[in-house]
Design a protein that fits this description.
transmembrane helix; 78 residues; mainly alpha; 3 helices; membrane; transmembrane
Amino acid sequence: MTDAKLIVVLKTCIALGLLLILLGLYFHNFSDTIEAMGVQGIIISAGCVACGMALSLPTKMYLTFILVKREAEKRQQQ
């Protein structure tokens, strides 16, 4: 996989992770249905936030590593 494709995939994972975090926060704060579900609703809300964090944080670190590596390679070529 080329670097450009990998960067697009990582950015997509970050966006999906952030959307899941926001969905979990919406469920937790504004959804009456989730509140009526009780403990199961809390688990659903927390699961969305946890999956979002798992998707977004490691990919941010890896994407930063790739971009720093690419910048270092460009400097060496000059």
